[in-house]
Specification:
The protein contains seven helices and seven strands, in the order βαβαββαββαααβα. The chain is an alpha/beta fold. It has one domain: Rossmann fold. The structure holds adenosine-5'-diphosphate. The site of adenosine-5'-diphosphate has 14 residues, from α1 and α7. The site of adenosine-5'-diphosphate (ADP) has 14 residues, from α1 and α7.
Amino acid sequence: MPSRTLPNIIITGTPGTGKTTHCEVLAERCPELRHLSVNQVVKDKECHEGWDDEYQSWVVDEDKLLDNIEEHCKTGGCIIDWHACDLFPKSWIDLVVVLRVDSAAHYDRLSSRNYPEVKLQENIDSEIMEVLLQEARDSYEEEIIVELTSNSTEELEENVERIQAWLKQWKEDNKSE
Ligand code: ADP
């Protein structure tokens, strides 16, 4: 049983599946949760080994990143927003949400971001090949992984409600006597 009084949730998925949108809505509706944007931490705390020009992204220094978020994760109540999930210690994590999106919607979302062609194609392929879902299954127990589709605002709403219901249950199950 974790000693934290609030759970830590990873919202993961290929870029463009809706991680940040889900985290923002959840954090707004659940003031006890904090949106932990790994992207932001990497930038603000310089947890990187430089800039990758081809992919137009930072090369993350995972050890430094984990050092920077460890205290928050020990306290609990973090919604971790990142397109990878295998780096976080299992003992920190209570729920892993893997967001999924259909190719057509995914393509539209990534195109509007002006991604370099190589990055756009790699992300579309990665989503089709279920790379993040597999990474989650390789890293965490099946019981804590949930795969949710994020094609529409209706699904976004349903997903957020489902996570809120899960949070309520977790708090109930982990109440101190
Ligand atoms: P990620 O953090 O996974 O890269 P974002 O949350 O930034 O994805 O979402 C990418 C784009 O897709 C944004 O323009 C966002 O408004 C839109 N979007 C995200 N989730 C949904 C959804 N469930 N339905 C419709 N549009 C969505």
